[in-house]
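Quarterly update, task 2.4: iron/sulfur cluster-bound model.
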Amino acid sequence: MTDIAFTPDRLEQCQKLVKKYEKPQCALLPVLYLAQDQYKYLTLPVMAYVAKLLEMPTGKVVDAVSFYSMFKREDPGKFCFQICHNVTCRMMGAEKMMAVAKEELGVGKKVTTEDGRFSFETVECLGSCDNAPVLQLNNEFLKPINEEGFRDFLKKLKQGNEASISEVLS
Amino acid sequence: MSVLAQERKILLKHIAEPDLGTLKGYERLGGYQALKKALTMAPTAVIEEVKVSGIRGRGGAGFPTGMKWSFVPQNTGKPIYLLCNADESEPGCFKDKLLLEKNPFALLEGIAIAAHAVGSKKSYIYIRGEYAKAARILEKAIAEAYQAGYLGQKVMGSAFSVDLVLHRGAGAYICGEETGLISSLEGKKGQPKLKPPFPAVSGYLGCPTVVNNVETLSTLPWILQNSGAAYAKYGTEKSTGTRLFCLSGWVNKPGVYELELGTPLVDLIEKEGGGMKDGAKLKAVIPGGSSTPPLTAAEVAEARLDFESIGKFGSFLGAGGVIVIPEHVSLVGILETIAEFYWDESCGQCTPCREGTGWLYKIMKMIADGQGKKSDIADLNKTANLMMGTTICALSDAAAMPVLGFLKKFPQEFEAALGTPH
Ligand SMILES: Cc1cc2nc3c(=O)[nH]c(=O)nc-3n(C[C@H](O)[C@H](O)[C@H](O)COP(=O)(O)O)c2cc1C
Ligand code: SF4
Ligand code: FES
């Protein structure tokens, strides 16, 4: 992991991004998204690289990364589910969805399956309370789905049926 | 049929038109006529028109928009920034997402109008990280608006220029607070800053900055097109216009509904929302998002959706998140969830907020787990009272208010819960 660097197209994107802002540091969030897109999660060397690009201390980047929940310090796996556990979703059955995920995947709160492919996290209100209980897969909303639908989908995904993803995304 | 007649709607009038989200469709439906008109007016005249409309900010605090704009000093020699707050993260609120995804050009037109009014040449939309789809839609809309000359240099052939950048947040509720948003946009942790100085004087990078909510800005084209006086004819004397209400919870048809301010709350639940799901009995309604104290069923029967009426019941319209709670759902569980949320989202700078949100959650969890003691209720009240009005930003108050409200309005339910798990 020594030679951390953006791919040429990402480096170009990064330079374009920085130009949009008044100061390089202001582009921190979008540049971290770029880095996370390339590396899946943000290790210390990746954060140090971003810090250098944006002419800021590494410590400040580390601080920011731990402040924002969408930046990951660990590999969330190929399929990371988000389930809202706020007021409306809880009222409308979020706990049951969580139970289905645990039964099918054997993962709990912010836990990854043994093979590292699946993970699951509880998140705050996703601004979709009219579709409660609300689920996301890799930060994309799922269509309203009931327990059985969710169970079927997880079963298919476990068997490697990735085509089923497009059927459930909203 | 909806409570507010289709032709009287302001924000959702064309929402069902399939091409509303395209520039062509938006233009066909009258889009960008308002900006054209605004650009022939002096900035002060635009501000005046918005003052006459009486519109108050739709992001939660309800501050009069025209007045906010008139605080921006025009002679500092520093650039002026206009920031659109699209961080929508208050639990129970999802109206801005609808506007961003379905009617992005109304927002872009509103931003151009506001930028012209306050003298800003650079604007940002700060959108919450979780709204990935809305961000893609906006990115495309911004590019189209640039190409058509509605953004960038010499907008619509006038002398006015404005640049607009879409900036994605990354999962932190506190970035919705305007000074937290500014810190975040500066590439830091999204920690709020002490006011004064207010952002209007010293905001983004120490420059004069206006922060406005998506719904507020999306309403501007209508106001400019039809006049402030026409807008003020909607709603009540002190709460003018229409608003989007996010109806969720135990109702048959949850969703976003546009209503005139002053509409009976019961109409939203019964006529728009199709009434209670499975014929359940209503227990309480959270009227404006999770930080607003609840209304009892008796209060719901009387309440109207305007700032004054909801205020009479000790609560707020907040950001329009109306959560309907039926008899069979435990308020103890709901308040525990709310307490956990604010504890999780406190940025930790202020002692009363950092410690207070922790205590509120800890005590609520004990009560919910059936280990509540009689003294817990008094401790909750005491802690919540100490958290009010003593911190850098209003998150601390937002955490304390629902605790005080639930305990005051439903004392029997909390007392009965002591010693029994929920
Ligand atoms: C804790 C906290 C969270 C907030 N979150 C939001 C938000 O997500 N969106 C928003 O528009 N305003 C939010 N606000 C209000 C903003 O600080 C600000 O008042 C608002 O964006 C101004 O726009 P308006 O005048 O058009 O309403 C929040 C305030 C606080 C105290
Ligand atoms: S009140 Fe809470 S969230 Fe606001 S600045 Fe203080 S610690 Fe941070
Ligand atoms: S409470 Fe789950 S999306 Fe709002």
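Highlight for this quarter: The longest helix of chain A spans residues 8-20.
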